[in-house]
Every structure is written in C-alpha cells, then in structure tokens.
C-alpha cells in the first residue's frame, strides 16, 4: 500500500506508544567478540573465558577512532590527560587515573594525583607486575588491595600499557559505579594491545631549533634570566615564567626575584614546584588549584595551568615554571617535550652566569656550537633518503666537533652485527660483531666511552689503523637511541683536530646531536616503510578490485600474478593447477620467462602443503638429478594462518626458516612456491615465482598473501553456481528434508502445531508473534488450505525458494516490510474463509490472488508515490504518471517468479501464463491509494443495481480486488491493541519520509509526515472516517458476513474519538 492520507494535525504526545514495540522492524547488527593472543585477563569473582575480539572491521574502526582522538588531544593537553580522557569516554567511567612507570625510581607515578605507588602496592602494582588486565567488582576483596591506592567498594578495571619491545609504560585505573562486563574487559585488552602500536608516537622527542639557539645566553644572572623568561614566555604563550632553585638536600627552595635580580630567601614549602625539585620530575598541571601539593601563596588563587621542568647541571638544581597557557586550556605534549629539550640549554645558561671571563668565553664558544648543531637539525629534518641522510649527518658532526674522522654504526639485530653507514676517511664499509671493540661496548651497554689514549685501551681494535696507516689517538663513542628507547646505533668520533682529548662539552654536544640523529634515522626508516607499504597495498587494492569485478578466473589470476611478480621483481610467475584425473600439476597461467623446470619444485610444495624457498644450490641439485627427488626434511611447524598471521606476525617460523636457507646469492635463480588451498585444506594448485634477487622473509610473507587471493579466486570459480543459491540452500536444508523437497505435503518442520492454529485464520492474528520461519509456516498453511501445491504441482523446494527470494526483496522499513506482506495474505484468507469465497473463485484465481497478496509490496522503499515523483527519485522518474510503487512491485514479482527455481507457474500453458500475470498485475495495481475513491464509487454504483454475478469473471475480479484492498489496510479492523501498534509503525514510516522531505528542503507531502506536530488520535479519526470505513462498509455490502469487520472498525474509531475528546480535559 502506498498511503496518501491527508489530515490536519497538531500535538502528538501521550498517545504515542512508549517502550519497545514488536511491530517496529528489528535490526540485528553483527556483534563481534574480542580476542587476545598473548596476555591474560583477571576478573575476580569467577574464572571466565576471555571473549574473542570483535569483528575486525568494527573493532579496528572503533579503537582507531579512540586512538586518533587521543593523539589529536595530545596537541592541546598532556599525554596522561589525553589517555585518561579517552579511557573515561570509552568506559563511561567516573574516574580514570594513569600511573606512569618511572624506571629510575622503580615505582609508578600518577601526574593527575601527584602520588607514587610502589610496584608491590595495591591492585595497580599487581597489574604492573603481572601484566594482565584485572577487573574487580569490589576492590577491597582483592588480595592486593591498598586503601591508599585503590577504590574500596567501587568496581574498578586496571589496564596495563606497554611500549614496543620495552618495559611497561604504565597502568590505567578505571573506576565507575557499574561492574565491567566481559565485552568491556575484552575491549580493555584490545586497547592494551593497540597501545603498543601507538606508544612510540606518544614518546617522540621534540625540539624547536630557533628558540633553542636563542636560549643560549651569557652575561649576568639578571640579564640572562630576563632574556630566558622573555624567550620562553613568547614561545610557549604563557602568562609568566618563574625560575626556582634548591639546595643539595632538596629541602629548601628559593624563587628568583626579578626586582633585585637575585634568588630570594629559602622556604621549606614551595607548593607544586617542591615536588618538581625534590623528585626531579616534570609536572604538567591542567589546574593548579586541584593539585594535591597546591599552595596558595606560591601557586596563586586562580584556576590556571602550569608546566614545570627540573634542571640539574654541574651539581646545581633549578626548575623553570610556565604559568597559564594563554592559547589553550593547558600545556600539551609538544610543550612538555620542547621544554624537556630546552632544559639543558637553560641550565647551561644559568650555571655559567658567574664564571667570569673564562666562563664568558666558554659560554660564547658553547653558544656558537649549539647554533651550529641546530642548523644541522634544520638541514637533516627534511632529508628522508637514508643514503643521503647519513653522510649529511656525519659530515656535520665532524665539523661540529672538529674531528679528523667519524663513523656511524647501525645495529643489525638480526645478524647481531654493527655496520657502518658512513665512515669518514675510509674507502670501505666496516662490518663487525655487535660486542666487538669500543663501539661494540657502547652498542651493548649504552655507556658513553671517552678514551684519551686509544692504544692503551685493551678494547681498541688496531686492525683498521694497521690496514690504513691512520693513527688513532682519542675516541668518543655515544649511543643513538630510537623512538622505542632501543640502541639503534653508535656515533664514533676520532681525534680532535686540535690534538686535545674530548671534554664534557663535546659529550653534551654529541648527546644532543644524537637525539636529532635518532629522530632523523627513525623518520627515514618510517618513510621507507611507508613507501614499501604503499607499493604492497597498491597491489592488494588492485587484486581486491579484480576479485570484485566480473572477470573470468583466468583474468583474475593474471592480475594476481602480475602484482606478485611486481612485488618480488620476479622474472616469472606461474600457477600450476592440480589435475583431478592423475593428481599431477599442470601449468594453468604463466607470465614472464619460460617455465624451465616443469613442476619439479611445485610438486614438493603440493605434497608438503607448506610454502617453500629453493635457493640456487637446491635448484641445481634437483635439475641435475631429476630422478632423485629432494628428501630434505621439511620444517616441522603447523601451517601459517593465512593472511592474518602473515601480516601481523603471529607465526613466522616457517617462512623465516625457509629464508635462512637463502645464501644471498645474487644474479642466480631463486624459486619460491606457495600451496593454493581451499578452506577445507584441499590443494587446488601451487603458485610459483622465479627471480634472481635475494628473497627476504618479508617477501615470503607478502607473497603468501597473494597466494591466498589466488586460492580464493579458484575456489570461488569452482563453487560459483552453488554460491548463487547458497543462502537458499542452507535454509532449505534446515527446514525441508531431502525426501520432502519434491513432495506437495507441508514439510514436518513447517507444520503449525494444533495449539497455535486458533488464530491462524482469525481477525486477531498477530503477525509479529510469527516472525522468522513462522511467516513461512503461515504461507504454507494458506497454500495448503486451498490445495494449491498439488493442483499446480508446486513442490516444497520450489515454493521455499520463491518465498525466500521474494521475502529478501522486502526492505527493512518500518511498515511496508515482509511482516506486512504475510499479515495481508493472512487477512485475505480470513475474509475468503469467512464469506466462503473459496467456493466461488476458481483454483486458478485463488493461486493468483495468494501470489498477488504475497508480492503486493515487494521492494517497497517506504516512501509514497507522491514523494517519489516530487523528489524525482529513480522510480518516480521511471514510472511517472502511473502507479509508481505498485508498478515496481509487479516488476519485482515478475523477475523473481520468472527464475526457473522460483517459477510457481511452470505447469501453466501459454494462455494460462498470460492470464495469470494479467490477474496478478490488476490485483497489485488496485492497492494504489490514488485509485481508492474511484474504485469505491464504481463498485458501489454496481451494487446499487444489484449484487455481483459470481459466474462473471469480471465480477469475481472486483470481489478479489475489494478483499485485497481491505487486507492491505487490515490493521484498522483488528482488535484495538493490535490496530494501535500497527498505527505506530505506519506513523514511523511517515515520519521517516517527513525527515527526508525536511532535509531536502521540500514541503511535507502530508501532515502525517510531521514528526513534531502529529496529533495521533485526530489523524486516525480522519483516516478511519474518510478512507477505511467507506471501504469496509462497501465490502459488507458485497459480502454481508464482513459486517463483523465494519463493527470492529467502528469500535476502534470510538476509542480514537474518546482519546481525542479526553485531551482538553487532561491538558
């Protein structure tokens, strides 16, 4: 039905049904589960299995959004605040606290609470030491409970956070009033795992070159501090900058007074800055008033932010305090990192203010070198090519420290070696064991080594000097750390040009230099990885696109092989298919060079069912002795989990072992093979690639992903016909036994028990109560009651396929859905039985009538004909000036029934087939409400002249049309509690259209579409009075037995009138 009901309306409030309404279409989105691979979860009270991860597409999207928001927030607030805010929103928590791990102090520290927690204290400490997520409904019942750390009675969740290949980053303590469920615990575990990926982004160093250069000041204390305060205030956009210092005991504190140019009298309590100086920790406080160490005399009486940084230099302890970030609510992560990077320069300026002439000269020299260093930072920041970057870094380093030679050694963790990427003064690269020599000592221990006489140090390796004739006198080696805190390399400086030993300034300079060096090397590495990933992902996108296009399997496989060949730079790529007849492999698709060795190597992989790499020696041995098949032991591991484990590295043993057999031979043939397998472990064939390049483990993992695409393509091709009807076949097997498929009796599982048949053909039939397979049972009962299965040889299998296909054309709209189709079919049968019409209509007409009722709203979009035309939607354009939706319903029905598996009319001859569709189309088209009043006028005029002639086919058509129209709006004639619920869902569908009309800038096509101003009782009074009641009264004239329907419509109308009259009194 495409309702076009005009009615005035005002307020629609208390008569709107509240709560869940079974008549509204239910949506059941796929709910995934969380899973975890390597960390356990502890939940007190019961030992419960950890749920699996949600569907990857859903979980990844949700968690990535959380982390993206968290990363965005770090631009405006400290890291701990960003993390706490993200977690608080994720779990709807009342309180969230991040306890950061302080390795130096061997304890946890909360910046928010400004409190320490020993590793062994509380559930927080338990989480840090056990590395598991802990959920407790009542923390005081936990064995590790500590009242000073943990909430006593409020449900709490503790989440450990880790860095990449490093120690624990911290523990998140989440508190709220309700107990955390299993899904939330799983989300916590997923967050913990995801944090590993993002951790390095939260801990990168930052420095601003120009500002840092300006912070190197000289002169009297007063002048230095004035300049420092001005530069810092302007750079950080803060209200004020303070300088503090403490004594050796760190118990007395003094603040610099700009009026007299001196530090003031010592005090024992300096508020928040006391914590900074006492514990040598940076504090970023969003609101000083809320800090536990707040002191009004020092921190003021205004709610403002503060960032405080300790500075230790030459035995002196200072602190710089930035008050009130004026451009943002609080200081952000970048502010923290920059102030941390600036602190050595500020400390140097402060400590040298009273060193006299020598100090002034030293300070000037130090300033010049720092400026040179920062120029280097500016230069290298834009270089991404590591082959260009490393020479640039080291040339600047030699110039900066004025040395004769320098080298940059990078750590090769796989081979446990040190490799030079730049060796100033030498012609060849140097490779040596990781633990060898002075550089090896720094690389393994992280210690700075400063040697004044190299030949007197037993660790010094004289081999290079002997080979080159160079004489090494002094050596300085300093480690380079990556963003994960690992030693990534070592900078080695040899022989100062002035002949002196390296001093403290050289060490500090090189330490600062290596910070830039580490950042630049990381950026270069990430840049190269991004290029590789871009290349790989492009291949995957192209393959996915190929799989989603309508191509032959041969075309898809060629696309896959081309992409795999490009990734490996291979000379040949081939797919061998397994022959069913003789179980042998034969080439199916091959691109590139000729296949020289047949299936020699592919056969081995087909038998082992595992990917394998063949190096040059193995290829030569196999070719030279073709009769002697290789009997080398195959790796004894389980198969790799395809694609997922390859991309995420859950099991790389097999491919790594295969890689270890690669002797690195270049310009010689190397072959790698991958089995192509179905989901049930059936081998379809083998993908083989040949190249002259060295094949890496990463190549093997990536190529195995390509093999999975090839397997999917082959399997999809093999099962293509089954796939087309797969969804029907699965359900058919579930409800219809094999022996019932070709019979005409109702299948056992689709029969309705006797106790449920009481309302089957009654006016109080409740369609939502039959949702699911119950709707199919109703249709079977309707067809069987007229004996149509046997009459027209419609088998159970055919009717099931028809019912499944036509039901899936109905959209999930509030009213005109599959439930409505079944409801209309039932009401039509109720009326036919009530008036005995099955004795008047022919079997042919009954079949057409039932099919028309089932199909009458197929693929309804939930919008009226008027809207489709006015909005110029596709259907409105296509069927303009005719019954838009009703014509579309006919088209959909024709498409479904014309398919052989669903053809209910296969037993009809050509004339009957034409007449059947003519009948169905006339019945469906009459449900257009635009024809409503003309139909009633015409039918009543005929009834005025006397009853219709049941022997006349035209009169019988009018009977059927009247019955179907009554069925289409049958909800108004059902008992009021059912009619009211149907009214709700119809209103919701009107509202849905009205919302779209408003969003499109259209006027409402009907007052019923106005969600905000609908008067439900008043609208129903108009609908009943002018549309429904005349139709049901006409049907009662046609069939007096249907007066019962008229009486029910009038009864319902009286209820709506009473509700409408009661409104003024209640208001």
Automatic annotation (TrEMBL):
<dbReference type="GO" id="GO:0046872">
    <property type="term" value="F:metal ion binding"/>
</dbReference>
<keyword id="KW-0140">cGMP</keyword>
<dbReference type="InterPro" id="IPR029016">
    <property type="entry name" value="GAF-like_dom_sf"/>
</dbReference>
<feature type="binding site">
    <location>
        <position position="968"/>
    </location>
    <ligand>
        <name>AMP</name>
    </ligand>
</feature>
<dbReference type="InterPro" id="IPR036971">
    <property type="entry name" value="PDEase_catalytic_dom_sf"/>
</dbReference>
<dbReference type="InterPro" id="IPR002073">
    <property type="entry name" value="PDEase_catalytic_dom"/>
</dbReference>
<feature type="binding site">
    <location>
        <begin position="816"/>
        <end position="820"/>
    </location>
    <ligand>
        <name>AMP</name>
    </ligand>
</feature>
<dbReference type="InterPro" id="IPR003607">
    <property type="entry name" value="HD/PDEase_dom"/>
</dbReference>
<feature type="binding site">
    <location>
        <position position="1020"/>
    </location>
    <ligand>
        <name>AMP</name>
    </ligand>
</feature>
<feature type="binding site">
    <location>
        <position position="856"/>
    </location>
    <ligand>
        <name>Zn(2+) 1</name>
    </ligand>
</feature>
<dbReference type="InterPro" id="IPR003018">
    <property type="entry name" value="GAF"/>
</dbReference>
<feature type="binding site">
    <location>
        <position position="857"/>
    </location>
    <ligand>
        <name>Zn(2+) 1</name>
    </ligand>
</feature>
<feature type="binding site">
    <location>
        <position position="820"/>
    </location>
    <ligand>
        <name>Zn(2+) 1</name>
    </ligand>
</feature>
<dbReference type="Pfam" id="PF01590">
    <property type="entry name" value="GAF"/>
</dbReference>
<dbReference type="Pfam" id="PF00233">
    <property type="entry name" value="PDEase_I"/>
</dbReference>
<dbReference type="InterPro" id="IPR023088">
    <property type="entry name" value="PDEase"/>
</dbReference>
<feature type="binding site">
    <location>
        <position position="857"/>
    </location>
    <ligand>
        <name>AMP</name>
    </ligand>
</feature>
<keyword id="KW-0378">Hydrolase</keyword>
<keyword id="KW-0479">Metal-binding</keyword>
<feature type="binding site">
    <location>
        <position position="857"/>
    </location>
    <ligand>
        <name>Zn(2+) 2</name>
    </ligand>
</feature>
<feature type="binding site">
    <location>
        <position position="968"/>
    </location>
    <ligand>
        <name>Zn(2+) 1</name>
    </ligand>
</feature>
<protein>
    <submittedName>
        <fullName>3'5'-cyclic nucleotide phosphodiesterase family protein</fullName>
    </submittedName>
</protein>
<feature type="active site" description="Proton donor">
    <location>
        <position position="816"/>
    </location>
</feature>
<dbReference type="GO" id="GO:0007165">
    <property type="term" value="P:signal transduction"/>
</dbReference>
<feature type="domain" description="PDEase">
    <location>
        <begin position="739"/>
        <end position="1063"/>
    </location>
</feature>
<dbReference type="GO" id="GO:0004114">
    <property type="term" value="F:3',5'-cyclic-nucleotide phosphodiesterase activity"/>
</dbReference>
